[in-house]
Amino acid sequence: QLGSHIIPAKERWQGIYDQFMDFLNSGSDETSVESFLGFYSKKREKQKSLKSMTITKKVEIAMPHSTEDSLDFLTCNRPDGATSEKLASNQCILAKGQQLKEYLSKAFASSHHPLGKLLQTLILVFQGTFSGICMHKRLLSMAQQEVVSHAKELFELARYFLPKSLEIGDPSTEAAIRDNLNAYTVTLPLILPRFYPDLFMLYMLYHEVEDSMYWKGILYLELLSDTKLLEFLEVQKDLWPLQDIHLTNKQRLSVVKDVCFTSAILCFQKISTTADPQDKLDTLMKTYLEIESTVTRVLKREYNLSMDDLLPLLVYVVSRARILHLGAELHLIRDMMDPSTEGGMNDFLLTALDSCYQHIQKEELRSRSLPK
């Protein structure tokens, strides 16, 4: 029943957002700027303070330590000649998206920027609510919803601070940019690393039992050599990359480990090095492509992996990659990924990874896998 009577995430901590809106509605005079940011703006002139800031329809704030290659000098021009309008529009979307992320990255990192001040306050509140003695696995859904809600709120508030270089005159291009740039693609990747340590700890606690069973399976599979493991997983023998196994005089084929599908294993290990769910998805996609590339090299022809072919190979790669909290990683991706990217290849790969994760947990797998 926990959570049935809690305040929705978007309605929590309204006092923080109300203070920020009062600052926006105050006309941003020098007194309100100093009051909100907590320092005298006259002493910050060399750091391009907020003294000249004005808020009308949109607000422009000079970033501290800006240089001549700042965002104000970036433009998004259409290519000349026979380049299609669609290509030009896509390039414009990519350029504007990159500019927007660069600007907001600086804003969120700066204590001299109202958005940075707001984010710092939200982080402190989040840590006080969900970390330390307050940490409990049943609070996971509340914490996850709160981070997503903050990303959406900050994305909406960011429009008040965009410089002129990020304004778009073409209505069709502006609509396309709105469709492609949202809280999940712009603000969430920027703020998630700051919430990630406490948030991921909650995921680890929530999936502790599953991850413990999964890790026992990993330890059992680790006892098997490459050929024994591929045979145990019932991988077709014509897909085995045996040419990658180089034996010394003192080695036997039956004892060699960690030499097959090495590129895919190294790629998959990067899934735990980033907080961004889209980066994790990209890592999973690259792992799939590395597996497929190795199989294509072995067969000496193009080969598209079906789910039946992919699953045993992915189990091999996952078992050798030894990701400690794979269940927490998997569920964080599903919870925090952009809803517009659901379906298609992303769902295919996440389903395959989840199947591998469930398979490694099985008790009968551990009882069958011990070397004789």
Automatic annotation (TrEMBL):
GO cellular component, one term: cytoplasmic vesicle
InterPro entries reported in the protein's UniProt record: Alsin (IPR051984), VPS9 (IPR003123), VPS9_dom_sf (IPR037191)
GO terms under biological process: endosomal transport
Domain VPS9, residue spans: 223-369
An MF annotation (GO) of this entry: small GTPase binding
SUPFAM superfamilies: VPS9 domain (SSF109993)
Pfam families, alphabetized: VPS9
Gene3D superfamilies for this protein: VPS9 domain
Matching PANTHER family: ALS2 C-TERMINAL-LIKE PROTEIN, ALSIN HOMOLOG
Protein name: VPS9 domain-containing protein
